[in-house]
Amino acid sequence: MKEATGELNVTVITVVAIAAIATLFMMVIYPRIKNNIEGSVNSTSNYSVDSAGNINAS
Known about the structure:
Shape: rod-shaped
Strand content: 5-15%
Radius of gyration: 20 Å
Strand order of the largest sheet: 1-2
Largest sheet: 2 strands, antiparallel
Helix content: over 70%
Structural class: mainly alpha
Number of strands: 2
Distance between the termini: 66 Å
Number of helices: 1
């Protein structure tokens, strides 16, 4: 029974770590990547991308 409890603790720690990494990615890294892509699209063409992700012809 003690081994099962230890495995459960490792599983919980793994799930929490994955959730923390996913949250970091979505809150910090992804917006930077998205803004860089939008800036590249807007500066190299006659198209713009609005906040909803829709592409509009200028």
